[in-house]
Amino acid sequence: MTLTPHEVAVSQLDPTQTVPLDRIKSLRFIKNNIIGNKTKKDLYIQLGIVSRLRDIISARDEKDPQLKTQATIVLGSFAFGNENNILSLTDSGVVEPLLSCLNPNGDPKLIEAAARTLNAIYASPKVSRRELFMGDHLNILVQLLDTYSSSYQLGQGVVMLHTAELVASILARCCETTDQQMQIAASGAIPLLMRLLTSGVSKSQEASLGALAALVKDNSELARLIAHMRLEKGERPAPYILRLVWDKSPTMRLAAATCLTYMNRAGVIPEHNNEIMSTVLPILVKMLQLSGYVQETAPKVLAHLIWESENMQKAVCDMDAIPRLASIISQMDEDDNVYGIVGQKDKLKE
Predict the structure, then answer these.
(1) Are 198 and 168 a contacting pair, CB within 8 Å?
(2) In this structure, is the dihedral angle defined by the CA atoms of residues 341, 343, 347 and 350, taken in order, positive or negative?
(3) 217 within 8 A of 225, measured Cβ to Cβ
(4) What is its main location (predicted)?
(5) Is residue 339 scored above 70 in pLDDT?
(6) Cα dihedral: 174, 347, 205, 259 (round 10)
(7) Which of 73, 45, 33 is nearest to 57 (CA)?
(8) For residue 350, what pLDDT band results from cuts at 50, 70 and 90?
């Protein structure tokens, strides 16, 4: 029986049958076939590719990091599929070897690819975070926030920064309980996140704000610690973050507003109450008129901010927030195709 090109490509991942160069070619062939193609992703999963990829990234005697890097990138392509694909990866045990690829002394491109894939996997709330907090994985992960690390060579700055952004995002997604918050803080992540916050690179700053917000949410101890820290030039974090609320990027404004909201609810920045009322509140209300992730998330942050403040609740009403929220719901009911992304309409309506 003649094998299809896809079956041949999977069979060529067997280390006993092919040399590393042929395996890399097969991985690139597979990657080009599955990017943006759900049907092909399902096909390759049915052909048993996940266990082959897991074995490649688990190998300890592999001398060429390019093979592991390509296998990790392919795993990442599957992770950017649907929830079932992510669960297929985790059920096959890929998380532990991916975490082991995050060796700060290893190949920077492999580290970045592993961090990107883990970030995509942890986007699913159904995935256990347990392995990250086992052994030394968390401490090693946090080291990758240090973009000044001497383990990197000259010219690797962009890769370092991308990796740090991904690590911050992973920490934000693995910060769901008080115990996880405290473990991340104990690992030394907060000072490195502060440095990332003042990097001047938008995506890095957004990622840092996301992680800091996750750490301070419903945690007055960490909120107080962060509020009283000093940035590199001696400034407290809150005034710096307040300036980011005016950034031209909607996602940056949302990230800054979210972080300030959680700090405000923790009662650790009372000196900025007027600015929260006069700046953060109206900016969140304006975000209701945007689209996508920002519009979907802003109502939750707004609700959290005004939850126990009658003054803020009255202020929001004066800003016509209720008609804007009602307009979103009525528009969705009138035209189900306005919000074309699957699942977005339900999230937004919620």
Answers:
(1) no
(2) positive
(3) no
(4) cytoplasm
(5) no
(6) -80
(7) 73
(8) low
Task: Note every long-range contact of 195-198, with CB atoms under 8 Å and residues 24 or more positions apart, other chains counting.
Answer: 195/145, 195/146, 195/147, 195/232, 196/145, 196/147, 196/164, 196/165, 196/168, 197/231, 197/237, 197/240, 197/241, 198/231, 198/232, 198/233, 198/240
Angle, helices 38-46/65-79, rounded to nearest 10 degrees: 120
Task: Confirm if 13 and 50 have CB atoms less than 8 A apart.
Answer: no
- pLDDT tens for 40-57 read 999 999 999 999 999 999
Helices 310-318 and 321-334: angle between axes, nearest 10 degrees: 60
Sequence-ordered list of residues with C-beta below 8 angstroms from that of 163, at least 6 positions apart, any chain: 108, 111, 112, 115, 144
Which of the 8 DSSP states describes residue 4?
A: P
Judge whether residue 20 has pLDDT over 90: no
Candidates 100, 3, 94; CA nearest to 51 is 94
Going through 284-349 in order, the beta strands assigned E by DSSP cover: none
The SS3 assignment for 93 reads coil
Rounded to two decimals, the pTM is 0.90
Positive or negative torsion for Cα 251, 176, 79, 186: positive
Report pLDDT digits (tens) over 53-87.
Answer: 999 999 887 667 899 999 999 999 999 868 899 99
CA atoms of 86 and 98, how far apart (whole Å): 14
In this predicted structure, the answer to whether residue 152 has a pLDDT above a threshold of 60 is: no
Quick check: helix, strand or coil at residue 27?
helix
Tokens of 125: 């709330």
93's tokens:
């045990």
Assess whether pLDDT exceeds 50 at residue 338: no
Torsion (CA) 19, 22, 24, 29 in degrees, nearest 10: -160
Distance CA 175, CA 265 (A): 18
Residue with tokens 């968390």: 138
Q: What's the one-letter identity of residue 20?
A: P
